Amino acid sequence: MKTVDEMEETPALSLGSIVGGSTVANKPWQAAIRELTTRIGEVRQGVEVPLNLNVVFQVPGNMLKPEFVGVRTGSFSKARALLMVQVAVPEEVPPDPALYVKNAIHEAIDEAARWAVKRKVAIDVPKLLDILDRA
Question: pLDDT tens-digit profile of 22-54?
Fold first, then answer.
């Protein structure tokens, strides 16, 4: 599993993935996530937000498939002001997996905003969306 390292400074927006077994069918998912991870890493430099977001994609494979559909909140680290939001991608890869991944991150930001409102935690949605738009 790829997640934010505990010793690093917590970035405003980061991506990770859990791949349930590498297959030819899920290679486009892996490539799209990897490419967007790189682009987000380039544009998020110097951006600080009150609630950092780690979007973790769960990619179905030959050994493991996500137990849910869509987007859901995961763990929260108060010390790092970091919320994980999980995204299950479908087995069937759409014609433009990169666009799907980008839209899924938008949905993850929306989910984080709903979570933050319920728990009265500050979040800067416009800054997170700006990172995504520039990536």
Answer: 999 999 999 999 999 999 999 999 999 999 999
Residue pair 128/98 in contact by the 8 Å Cβ criterion: no
For residue 107, the SS3 value is helix
Token duo for residue 129: 């969306």
Burial of residue 34, with CB atoms counted within 10 A of its CB: 0-12 exposed, 13-18 middle, 19 or more buried: middle
**Whole-angstrom distance, CA of residue 110 vs CA of residue 1:** 24
Give pLDDT, residue 9: 84
Q: State the amino acid at position 3 in one-letter form.
A: T
Q: Which two tokens stand for residue 45?
A: 């430099």
Element (H, E) at 75: strand 70-77
Helix (H) or strand (E) segment spanning residue 133 = helix 125-134
Residue 19 — very low, low, confident or very high, per pLDDT cuts 50/70/90? very high
